[in-house]
Amino acid sequence: MPKSVRYKASSVVYFHGDTDERIYILKSGRVVLRSQDIETGQEIHDLVTTGEFFGVRSALGRYPREEDALVSTDAELIQFSVTEFEQVVSANTRIIVKMLKVFSSQLRRIHGKVSSMLKQQDTMDPEEGLHNSALFYYSTRRFDHARYIWSRYQELYPRGRYLEEARKNLERMGHGEASAVEAEASLRGDLSASPGGSRKSSVDNRPESPSKLFFEGERAFSRDDFEGAIEHFQRLLSAYPDDEEYALKAKIELGRSYFGKGDYAATVRHFSRLVQAVPRLPQMAEVLYYVGASYARNGNGDKAKAFLGKARSSGEDDPALVRRIDRALKDMEG
């Protein structure tokens, strides 16, 4: 039968490439799925929400894991074998519908990226394609692959357009100087010489990706660096206010960060505005809990009890949250 498994913060549930037929549900805590964008090669970080399955496709398809599953705070997971999972799903059509929606969305996203890559390949000549392949491996610090491809590039294109750049990067790798910063700047063709002979990337001021900002905020939060978490989530919302995948998550995490910092007035203001803007908020019970707990910490018992009561009635299907609410109410009595 399914069993409960506890993981400490900074541990790993599984790595990309692992062969494993176990499926998980996040019961409490925080888990991030780290994968690589098939189009850009950049890291993608997806936050697993409470009650969400992960590891399903690779387990059911019996192929290696497609991502790393990283535990960012202490977490409790429910672990299923494939047979156990199939029994649960067959008895609950809502789970089937939810999975189909998720898989459909993922397939549309993958299809869009593959189509984009194919269009790029139609207009890319072999020389550019070879050079870009080396840049990809260089940017992801897989220097053996990059070194081999650029060496072949020099043989095939002795007067090639990218010959000088290939030689410089080969020289860096030969001297052990191929840093991640140089690789990223070189990938975008943005390295320029400064008067002192050092190099500076012109992408320094460009906004980071929403997934990276979110992951950095999560990492700061897991270390109790609430100021750092607030900074990352605010930057994300400033640069990507309408991002479908990360904007709402960042708003939730920003409120939790205010609470963790002890700024209870800011927590109430932030979550009150969020509830007004998104009346059918999926995380409504958790938001109401933080508002109620903030009022309790500020000594407003009446409002605290009212919001905690609403949170409890809204979150009855989340046992971990109900326990936190009951504990908060008990603390007020004691």
TrEMBL record:
<protein>
    <recommendedName>
        <fullName>Cyclic nucleotide-binding domain-containing protein</fullName>
    </recommendedName>
</protein>
<dbReference type="InterPro" id="IPR014710">
    <property type="entry name" value="RmlC-like_jellyroll"/>
</dbReference>
<dbReference type="InterPro" id="IPR039565">
    <property type="entry name" value="BamD-like"/>
</dbReference>
<dbReference type="Pfam" id="PF00027">
    <property type="entry name" value="cNMP_binding"/>
</dbReference>
<dbReference type="InterPro" id="IPR019734">
    <property type="entry name" value="TPR_rpt"/>
</dbReference>
<dbReference type="InterPro" id="IPR011990">
    <property type="entry name" value="TPR-like_helical_dom_sf"/>
</dbReference>
<feature type="repeat" description="TPR">
    <location>
        <begin position="210"/>
        <end position="243"/>
    </location>
</feature>
<feature type="repeat" description="TPR">
    <location>
        <begin position="248"/>
        <end position="281"/>
    </location>
</feature>
<feature type="compositionally biased region" description="Basic and acidic residues">
    <location>
        <begin position="201"/>
        <end position="211"/>
    </location>
</feature>
<feature type="region of interest" description="Disordered">
    <location>
        <begin position="184"/>
        <end position="211"/>
    </location>
</feature>
<dbReference type="Pfam" id="PF13525">
    <property type="entry name" value="YfiO"/>
</dbReference>
<dbReference type="InterPro" id="IPR000595">
    <property type="entry name" value="cNMP-bd_dom"/>
</dbReference>
<keyword id="KW-0732">Signal</keyword>
<keyword id="KW-0802">TPR repeat</keyword>
<dbReference type="InterPro" id="IPR018490">
    <property type="entry name" value="cNMP-bd_dom_sf"/>
</dbReference>
<feature type="domain" description="Cyclic nucleotide-binding">
    <location>
        <begin position="1"/>
        <end position="106"/>
    </location>
</feature>
